Each structure stands twice: as C-alpha cells, then as structure tokens.
C-alpha cells in the first residue's frame, strides 16, 4: 500500500512559459513553411519534406522548438501531477521523447526521390519514437490526473485530446504512402501541441495555484 507523500512547495522556474514559447515558435514555423512551400500538398507531404530546399532551416527550427517544449513541460509536470504506479514513468518518457525530437531535427532529411541515407534513417526513427513516446506520456499523465484533485477540471479535456493523438498516431502508420499521409500526421502533431499548450496554461492558472496551496499572485511557473 502506497503512502501519501506531502507535496513539496512549488518554486517558479519558467518551464511552462518555455513550453508555450516553444510551441509558438513551432506553430509559426509550420505556418511559414506552408506559405513559402506552396509546391507541396499538405494532404500528402509529411512535415519532414519541408526540411528540403532553401527554407529547410525553418523546419529544423520547428523540430528543435517542439523538442524543447516537450523537455520544459516534462520538467514542470514532474512535480505538478501526483504519480503512482506506472504513471511515475511519464515525465521520463516525455523527456526522452523531447530528446528524440531534437535528434530528428539534428539529422537532415533526404529528398523524396533520393536514395535513403543514414541521416534519413536516424531522422525518421527518431521522429517516430518521439511521437510514440509523447502520446504514451500524454496517456499516462491523463491517468495520473484522475487521482490528483488539482487536475479534476482538466482530466476530461486531457483524455479527449490524448484519444485524438492516439488515433493520429495509428492513422499515421496506416496511411503511410497514401495521399492522406500528411494530413494525418498534422492531426497527430497538432493534437500533441494543443495538449502541450492547454496543460501549460492550466498549470499556470490561478485555479491550479490555489489548489496547489499557492497564493493567488502573478508569477512565472
């Protein structure tokens, strides 16, 4: 039988703000790429293909911003959600997922018509691993929220977005090579980023701070 351990007092670190900034940069980068690379069909082209060409540096920045956002949120949620049993693993899995996303950004992507290189293999496997780990982390975090009174108001929202992300992950595998691969991948990435934003905003809210025993004052969290 597990004992209830008193929650340590939270000290503002700015981690949730870093998450919001990282997501903002990633989303802005994707929007820019869709404007400047009108030659690619968003329904079919996976996001990695935007790393090719003169604007490829923007896609690299998107991967880095995505990874940093995951790392910052994992750090913040380590003490923001009570964890028991298997749910103890989610901050660590989210951290590994963030590192995998950084790795995906560090290796170049081949042109769709070019022979596969080692860099392409590393990039592809790292990106897949990152999304799998992030979706699993979302699911475990949602499970933990159901046993943490501070997250009572948010748990249903978290569960709904996690289901969308899980369906996107499954659909991404099934739709590989089809004319809808890009769209399904965007649903997956969008669901993960929306979850990041809403979780980071919630943990910064006065409602959460009051439930966590903090004073209702402004400050970075």
Question: How are the SSEs placed, and which strands pair?
Answer:
Elements: H1 15-36, H2 56-80, H3 90-106, H4 118-145, H5 155-174, H6 181-204, H7 206-211
Helix pairs in contact: 1-2, 1-6, 2-3, 2-6, 3-4, 4-5, 4-6, 5-6
In total, the number of strands is: 0
* Overall domain count: 1
Mean pLDDT: 86
Helices, by number, come to 7
Net shape: elongated
Radius of gyration, rounded? 18 Å
Give the amount of beta strand, in percent: under 5%
Note the run of SSEs as H and E: HHHHHHH
Could you give a short account of the major beta sheet?
A: none
- Give the structural class: mainly alpha
Percent helix:
55-70%
Low-confidence stretches: 215-220
Q: First CA to last CA: what distance?
A: 32 Å
Overview of this protein structure:
With 221 residues, the protein is mainly alpha-helical. The protein has one domain (15-211). 64% of the residues lie in helices and 0% in strands. It contains seven helices and no strands. The protein has helices at 15-36, 56-80, 90-106, 118-145, 155-174, 181-204, 206-211. The longest helix has 28 residues, at 118-145. The chain starts with 14 loop residues before the first helix and ends in a 10-residue tail after the last helix. Mean pLDDT is 86; it is low at 215-220.
Keyphrases for this structure?
single chain; 221 residues; 7 helices; disordered C terminus; mainly alpha
């Amino acid at each position: 039988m597990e004992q209830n351990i008193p929650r340590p007092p939270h000290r503002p670190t700015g981690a949730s703000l870093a998450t919001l900034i990282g997501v903002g940069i990633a989303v802005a980068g994707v929007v820019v790429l869709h404007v400047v690379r009108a030659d690619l069909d968003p329904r079919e082209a996976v996001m990695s293909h935007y790393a090719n060409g003169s604007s490829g540096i923007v896609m690299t920045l998107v991967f880095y911003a995505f990874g940093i956002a995951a790392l910052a949120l994992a750090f913040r949620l380590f003490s923001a959600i009570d964890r028991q049993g298997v749910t103890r693993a989610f901050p660590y899995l989210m951290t590994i997922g963030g590192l995998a996303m950084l790795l995906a950004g560090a290796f170049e992507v081949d042109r769709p018509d070019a022979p596969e290189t080692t860099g392409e293999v590393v990039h592809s496997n790292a990106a897949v691993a990152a999304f799998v780990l992030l979706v699993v982390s979302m699911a475990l975090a949602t499970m933990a929220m159901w046993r943490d009174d501070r997250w009572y108001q948010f748990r249903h929202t978290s569960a709904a977005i996690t289901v969308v992300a899980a369906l996107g992950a499954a659909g991404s595998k099934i739709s590989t090579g089809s004319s809808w691969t890009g769209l399904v991948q965007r649903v997956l990435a969008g669901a993960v980023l929306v979850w990041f934003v809403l979780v980071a905003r919630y943990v910064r809210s006065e409602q959460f701070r009051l439930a966590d025993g903090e004073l209702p004052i402004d400050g970075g969290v």
